[in-house]
Amino acid sequence: xxxxxxxxxxxxxxxxxxxxxxxxxxxxxxxxxxxxxxxxxxxxxxxxxxxxxxxxxxxxxxxxxxxxxxxxxxxxxxxxxxxxxxxxxxxxxxxxxxxxxxxxxxxxxxxxxxxxxxxxxxxxxxxxxxxxxxxxxxxxxxxxxxxxxxxxxxxxxxx
Amino acid sequence: xxxxxxxxxxxxxxxxxxxxxxxxxxxxxxxxxxxxxxxxxxxxxxxxxxxxxxxxxxxxxxxxxxxxxxxxxxxxxxxxxxxxxxxxxxxxxxxxxxxxxxxxxxxxxxxxxxxxxxxxxxxxxxxxxxxxxxxxxxxxxxxxxxxxxxxxxxxxxxxxxxxxxxxxxxxxxxxxxxxxxxxxxxxxxxxxxxxxxxxxxxxxxxxxxxxxxxxxxxxxxxxxxxxxxxxxxxxxxxxxxxxxxxxxxxxxxxxxxxxxxxxxxxxxxxxxxxxxxxxxxxxxxxxxxxxxxxxxxxxxxxxxxxxxxxxxxxxxxxxxxxxxxxxxx
Lengths: 159, 329
Fold this sequence. Notes:
heterodimer; A: Ubiquitin-like (UB roll); DNA polymerase, domain 1; 2 domains; five-stranded mixed sheet; 5 strands; B: alpha+beta; Uridine Diphospho-n-acetylenolpyruvylglucosamine Reductase, domain 3; five-stranded antiparallel sheet; four-stranded antiparallel sheet; globular
């Protein structure tokens, strides 16, 4: 079946079997391999993408269901010239080690900051509750998200 | 096993309840109604269950949203848990349902997971979900209730060949609020009280709800009877996120002149259905919601519990949650 999406602002489409998940469509049909396949059951969150403004586990959503909707993946954060403030702050704080949780963690963080640019530690923990990291212990990730929120607020105030 | 792979199925995407009900009626036991997909895709990926035809309900707008009615609210079955958790109307009138919705799984799962799916999801018994031929799967064995069976998360009441429990956090809240489940099929619409919507193995060992092939849960209606009363919801799980309850408790209580005049209480994950704690309700009605009443309520709640090899801990856990529900709501 033909599935047409807007991915990171660009119209994309693919002819996929009905049992294809959004994650599989992104990775194998659209070559967007940023979102990762981890646990495959919605536990780890490394497949997280934003669909119509909310974070979802793309491994648990049929591609057919995203037909006609807007999807943001980790590839939509940076452009060729600069990183997204979240990515810069993750780097600066050393928030990732192996990095496998990174795409999902950054997308959940972006989804939070889009709605709440000045979150408390508790709000960040809550927003990242569906993303597992087995390396870091989360402290630096949370610090990086709060720091990125500050930078984005300052940028907005200056613009 | 390769991951993110499912066996091929036919996908239907109806845009009206009428078409969905027509399809489900025609497909009969081959039809599978797909709501948020979090439970469904789990089954399909593990290949422990299979269907040839999936009816995706996500395109049916009339199944979504929270509406005010003459005597309460109506929640479309496809309304997400995130919407329920953040609805000012539900927060104001039926706080326990907002709380229970907010304690389900993770943000991502609440963003796609629906109230209809949450109450219709299948049990989490790992033997069953692994695809073993247990009673619930049509076989002749219960793997959880054997001397070696791992049954730490299984039932205290209602064992009948199967010892699995209800995994839902919203179900006890809906039982307490005396919600009505609206079911449609080819013959029309019917309403079933939440308390009767869930069924145990003694009624049908292969189903968790009254829904049969061709039935579609379309909405949940809650009257204002318990609106704004004193609520209590608490879920205890091994992990604070994603995990299913070891025990959860929901209660609504009205206190007049310092004593409990009306109360409803239900616990999840201790039986195959949300367990209405009528004995507690009887014990505490007419008493002050104090420490002494709470202690009596806790003792009453666990009377008759029959633990399995590894779930004795659920007895004091339930007792304490009941105490808190009386004392702290």
